[in-house]
Amino acid sequence: MRLIGALIKDWGCDCIFFFNYNRVNPGLSNPTVKEHMNALFGEERAKMLGEKLRGLTPLDRELTVVEEIAQALKETGGVYVLPFCFKNDKGNRTSHHLIFVSKHPLGYEIMKGIMAKESSSSSQGIPSFEYSPANSRQTLLHELTYKLDDLGDMLLKDFAGKRHNMRQIFEEHNIGKRYIIENYKEVLKQLEAEGKIVCSPTAEERPKRNGKVTFANRVMVTFPPKRSWVVYPY
Length: 234
Known about the structure:
By secondary structure, the protein is an alpha+beta fold. The chain folds into two domains: 2-145, no CATH class; 148-222, Arc Repressor Mutant, subunit A (Orthogonal Bundle), CATH 1.10.10. It is 44% helix and 18% strand.
């Protein structure tokens, strides 16, 4: 982990590395490789992780391990971490991950776009960030977690009472989420059509492309304030 931190410490330096989950997973409970696990996760995190994994399903174990390696990378200075999963030929088991780490949001955005295009599947235009030769369907967990409707609800909550342009919204909100810039534009257009946000210029004033209203980076979006509920005693 210190090596990765050293690689990304200078300006303009990003890193993408091979993470062999199939070796790391059993290694967390193997005392003979304890030193290597400590070097990878940090001694305290490795100990905590070994206890945390007990009783978890295989999927939950994998998600937990990847999340902890991401947190360890952030502690070395890699603010922006993006994992990409590779499945085996049958698509029913993880082979390995490629994990990208950067200190700059632009590097994160560029790699996110690359990984999105290489994903084997997507749901509502949201990429899986997973490559499977068998092109297997996404897990139910992923299907339920990443929906465009969820993104719309998040934006209304997180930006309540604020006014930003589309680009600012994307840069502030997309870190750590699977949503790509096209998803944000699509959701903002939906929210505008439903009257839930106010945009300037309006949909009627913006140009169309292939019959569809565009949503440029400079479009200003005004979000309504949070609703306040008052309960009166009887």
